[in-house]
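Priority: low. Protein: Response regulator transcription factor. Input follows.
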Amino acid sequence: MTDRSAGRSRAPIRVLLADDHTLVRRGVRLILDGEADLSVVAEAGDGAEAVERARSEDVDLAVLDVAMPRMTGLQAARELSRRLPDLRILILTMYDNEQYFFEALKAGAGGYVLKSAADRDLVEACRAAMRDEPFIYPGAERALVRSYLDRLHRGDGLPERPITEREEEILKLVAEGHTSKEIGNLLFISAKTVERHRANLLQKLGMRDRLELTRYAIRAGLIDP
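Result:
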């Protein structure tokens, strides 16, 4: 007896693609839409829009750039993991950075793909994510595991975050030039609360003004220089 369902084609994986560079999105879309089992059904130009689109569209997988305006890919991943726990998430980045990789995993991402190797790795990473299998770009596994084990042997563990997730969100928006009122509207908190977080940031980081906060945000990869 034959299984009739075996001959049926499954519906393509519905992908949300978020990157603030239109040309990058166009290139990545060509890669994904070229596969029968993948279909880009929504796009976003920043992390906040990605969260909005993921909540309003029927998507299975979000592919998020790290450095985006308003909300980074890591911040968006954290928010999406909280709001849409069944959504699969991949981080697509130009940063070959160990700390970003571990932050991506903590944020709920199932994979980390370098833009420089997207044409080689991204399709495989998408399929792995939908199978609930982690994906990390080839060549990095040994270095990451060795570094992690070295830290454990030294008793170091992972580096602690100097600021909270909320403070990081506010730091990014401050560095982008948003006013306290604008930040409050974006994060659904009062301008007074924003000012309190901003004061805490300055005290924690030992800084005096927005310019120093902006420099720190650039070094932390929250905004592009």
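The CA atoms of residues 172 and 222 lie 6 Å apart. Confidence is low (pLDDT under 50) at residues 1-8.
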